[in-house]
Write a sequence for this structure.
């Protein structure tokens, strides 16, 4: 058995899965079947609604295909011939893709958009009776695939090519690994992830809600959720102000002229629809903050002594994301960024990035996120028309980012074609407590927009110079970061971030007055506390507080009233003994201040 990279095996397994589905449902119409994180999927149009009961049948056929050791054939077919064959077979989605190739369009429907090959011929791969247009790569023989390293996981609805106006297909997902053990480890992690699902926990803990009248992708934060949201924003503000950032405030709309000047209107496809006022002026909800911040920079003159000039804001932007891509808090239409823009002299770029990465380290340590790496996104050299600026500027920018990351010492990869249209960027990829990877911090280096907006400062030589701009978000979107944290902590937030930090529980009505006094003392000290004085048993009141994952429980009986104390129970650690209320408050304040 020949060994292949797991991505290659996953790519071939997607075709094997499609072949198995075709054997069960010969009239199936195929969309696309790309590799994704940890596995693959295929978009299918068939009359039979797939469900988990179908998975064993499909998996059994896949294992039979693998056991037969079928050669995977690669050939090039003229586009006209391929189009005619797809139409004859009723494969309307494949015919549409081939029509696009024939007309010279770049489809960009997946991360691996299918391209026209040499001499007007298209790359096709065949396994048994299943043939699909594909760039590859694939294994040479199905016998080289891991027969016990894959599993079908779910079916979801997906609009063809991500457009709500197109037919909805069934997207069949699977995961795949090189061995049965790796698959088993991943499935254990998936089960844990299901328990930690932030959408489920958000409802159980009373953090946020969604309303069909408000709209998909527009979360409503309840009081407990708002407290977490507020603390995250407050924390980032405190850390940035300590580093000399100046906070600003901008409106949520702007004239379209602003985004035409920045280039977003021509190159960014998630802008909200345009609104026109009674005077004929056209406005749009902001999808990003940088053009507003550029105008703040340009509102007053600057000297070289003023730089670096750092402005920051925790503010909401609005993006017209497709409904099929929305997911709880991690993919929304209204997202609040901890956004910063650094206007720097060119000789300050390296030290400024070093400062930003240092802040990133500190923030991640606070949330016990200790495993992270870097993706450096550069432009696609084959398509320079997608980007602002000349080759020299881009080469310089990309080299600076690579050098900065090397100095930081984190592992990194370089990805072509992932840069913003105005500059390359650093994306920090963080693993959570169960090993899932999330993209969080972004640092984008921009030499182009300062020229586009004619940003200037007076140098030591008395002449005008253009600064460079660093576009930075440490948390990214606070909504998304909060969703990640809910799952990272399984809803059990550290004390400083917990919406309710202490539940005060009286054993009977006899302790009501002292219990209320304890809550008052806690709140007066800035500690978030709730009184649990329901007419229920002590055990049930304790269980209710524990279900809400409250960090501390102060239980009060007659002895505690007499001693002006509380019996402390700490989440996970259990009973901590009886402590004077003044001592308990002091200890809590110290733990909160240290953000342990």
């Amino acid at each position: 058995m020949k060994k292949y990279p797991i991505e290659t095996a996953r790519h071939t397994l997607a075709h094997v899965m499609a072949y198995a589905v075709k054997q069960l449902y010969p009239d199936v119409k195929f969309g696309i079947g790309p590799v994704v994180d940890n596995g693959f999927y295929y978009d299918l149009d068939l009359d039979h609604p797939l469900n988990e009961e179908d998975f064993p049948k499909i998996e059994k056929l896949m294992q039979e295909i693998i056991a037969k050791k079928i050669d995977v054939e690669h050939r090039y077919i003229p586009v006209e011939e391929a189009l005619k064959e797809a139409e004859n077979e009723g494969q309307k989605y494949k015919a549409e893709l081939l029509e696009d190739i024939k007309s010279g369009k770049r489809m960009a429907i997946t991360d691996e958009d299918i391209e026209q090959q040499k001499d007007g011929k298209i790359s096709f791969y065949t396994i048994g009776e299943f043939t699909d247009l594909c760039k590859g790569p694939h294994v040479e023989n199905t016998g080289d695939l891991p027969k016990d390293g894959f599993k079908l996981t779910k079916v979801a609805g997906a609009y063809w090519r991500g457009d709500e106006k197109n037919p909805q297909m069934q997207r069949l997902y699977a995961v795949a690994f090189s061995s049965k053990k790796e698959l088993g480890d991943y499935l254990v992690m998936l089960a844990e992830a299901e328990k930690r699902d932030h959408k489920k926990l958000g409802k159980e803990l009373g953090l946020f809600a969604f309303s069909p009248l408000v709209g998909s992708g527009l979360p409503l934060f309840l009081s407990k959720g708002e407290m977490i949201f507020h603390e995250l924003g407050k924390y980032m503000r405190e850390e940035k102000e300590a580093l000399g950032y100046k906070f600003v405030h901008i409106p949520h709309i702007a004239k379209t002229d602003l985004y035409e000047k920045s280039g977003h209107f021509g190159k960014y496809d998630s802008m909200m629809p345009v609104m026109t006022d009674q005077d004929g002026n056209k406005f749009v909800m902001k999808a990003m903050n940088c053009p507003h911040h550029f105008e703040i920079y340009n509102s007053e003159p600057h000297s070289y002594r003023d730089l670096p000039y750092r402005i920051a804001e925790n503010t909401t932007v609005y993006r017209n994301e497709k409904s099929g891509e929305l997911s709880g808090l991690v993919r929304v239409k209204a997202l609040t960024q901890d956004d910063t823009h650094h206007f720097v002299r060119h000789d300050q770029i390296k030290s400024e990035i070093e400062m930003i990465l240092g802040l990133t380290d500190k923030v991640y340590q606070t949330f016990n996120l200790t495993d992270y790496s870097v993706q450096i996104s550069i432009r696609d050299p084959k398509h320079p028309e997608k980007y602002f600026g000349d080759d020299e500027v881009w080469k310089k920018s990309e080299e600076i980012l690579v050098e900065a990351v090397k100095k930081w010492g984190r592992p990194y990869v370089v990805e072509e074609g992932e840069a913003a249209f105005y500059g390359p960027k650093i994306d920090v990829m963080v693993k959570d407590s169960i090993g899932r990877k999330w993209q969080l911090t972004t640092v984008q280096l921009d030499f182009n927009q300062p020229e586009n907006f004619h940003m200037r400062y007076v140098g030591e030589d008395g002449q005008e110079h253009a600064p460079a701009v660093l576009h930075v978000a440490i948390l990214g979107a606070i909504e998304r970061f909060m969703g990640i944290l809910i799952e990272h902590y399984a809803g059990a937030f550290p004390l400083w971030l917990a919406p309710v930090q202490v539940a005060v529980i009286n054993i009977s009505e006899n302790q009501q007055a002292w219990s209320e006094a304890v809550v008052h003392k806690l709140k007066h000290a800035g500690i978030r506390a709730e009184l649990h004085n329901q007419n229920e048993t002590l055990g049930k009141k304790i269980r209710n507080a524990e279900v809400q994952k409250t960090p501390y429980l102060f239980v009060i009986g007659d002895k505690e009233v007499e001693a002006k104390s509380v019996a402390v129970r700490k989440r996970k650690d259990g009973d901590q003994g009886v402590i004077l209320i003044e001592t308990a408050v002091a200890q809590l304040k110290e733990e909160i201040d240290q953000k342990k």
Remarks:
- The chain is about 35% helix and 25% strand.
- The CA atoms of residues 309 and 343 lie 5 Å apart.
